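Example record for the data management plan.
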Amino acid sequence: MKILVAEDDFISRNLLIKLLQKIGYQVTAAENGAEAWRYFQQDYFEMVITDWMMPEMDGLALCDKIRSTVQDRYIYVIILTARDRKDDLLQVFQSGADDYIPKPFDPDELKARVKTGRRIVELEKDHRRLQEVLIESRNKLRIVFDSLQEEIIALDRQRKVVSANKTFLAVNGLSYEQIIGAAWLDRPDAHYGRFDEKKVRQLISLVFETGSPQNYLDKWVDTHGQVNYKQVTCLPIKDEKGTVFQVVIVFKDITEERRKSEEIKGLNKKIIESAAQIEAKNKKLEAALKRLEETQAQMLQSEKMASIGQLAAGVAHEINNPTGFVSSNLKTLEDYQEDIDGLISKYHQLKELVAQECHGECSSEKIGALLEEIKEYETEIDLDYIQEDVRDLIKDCREGTERIKKIVMDLKDFAHPGEGVLQETDLNKGLESTLNVVYNELKYKATIVKEFGQLPLIQAYPQQLNQVFMNILVNAAQAIEKKGEIRIVTEAVDGYVQVKISDTGCGIPKENLNKIFDPFFTTKDVGKGTGLGMNIAYGIVKKHNGTIKVESTLGKGTTFTIKLPVNREPDDGNSS
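Corresponding structural encoding:
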């Protein structure tokens, strides 16, 4: 079977080609809908697999063109899409598509759905062949009827032949001269073996007596042992008074019709059974799709929580640092408070002595001594230093608690089980938040260089994009063996916001570049990576109607480039 693939994404297109060719299909690939339509007009394809969102002509427009122009055969159309809202799926099927596969697609699911489509195409072919057989049979019967090929003979009341058609004469080996005017049923050479002579005599008598048509089905076996069926019909011919004066006997061989009727019944039974099987399989596919959607959401959250778990130790360290110096500062402040409490106590004593002096109960010598004692105590505790240091300690504590609060809030955003709300998003702010969470993973491995441009706000799911940034940044740090650089550049380009994240790590081998977005592909040791991180990142970016590309040189580093549209809303629903 020949399949036409229309996919604007290079990686997805190559993956589709490899999967389909591997299972034995002939594949022609196009980069957009318009190119696919040109190929379709030039060649014979039984199946079309097309992405929805493509330049020049999208997948739904391509499907509509195919349905509106191709009438003589059936083309099975599968739509690839990251959209999974009910309205989107209705739009897919209203365009004339037979099936859809959510992106990123699972190779086994793709194979199963293509196999189902192939069976439907083959059933359609069988159905058309059956239609041709039925049409041929109908035409044959019409020709027989129109050319009066039945054996027809007319008898008068004396049972003498008054008329016969050529078919009757040919079948019985007679001529007009031999038959006209003769008592045919009484002829010694009449071929009674081809029908029941006694039954025919009875029917003739009934027609003359009642004036009503009579018929019966005669069954006989020829010299070859073949069972034959003949419909015998006796029709009255009446005069103006309504009296039957002739009987027309029509012998119609229906052996072939009976055979074809039985054949058609058998074929109809097979079609009904096939339709029941298809319906049962469709129900299974619907159930599988629902389970797949639930699994996708679980995989997305599991990958997110796995990333958080991976960063937990680093985040704890980042929190412990400010917590440690806040605790230390509070101990120092406690000591300062004890010294200040002692000084305040002496001030109270001084106040009481001054009050007594005013009432003549205390001598000025005691006051002077206490003043001297206060002065020495202030020197001892270094009151000026305490006053200056307290402000610094409080400032440090405030900064430390703010640092802890920011880390906790950023971590909460990443760990939140929901996918967030579509909202105006500042990518620079999201990158800062992500850097704050993963900072402990990066600071010992790389110098962070930020070149943030002035970016417009975009409609997006910020938590999901932060997860994309986190996966790329953590991978970049892990790719740097000792000490390197991670550079983050943002800018607005032709209606898009662009984020480039580059590292000076070990790079990616050329043979792996086309695989890094595949599900479950990882070069990490067992237990250190699920192989879902970059696949989920790819799905999130595609859901935002953006692109993510990778360039890498072995031994020099890797650059990921993410482009997201400014004015186009991303698809709703979970990332696919």
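Summary line stored alongside the record: Residues 423-565 form a domain with the Heat Shock Protein 90 fold (CATH 3.30.565.10).
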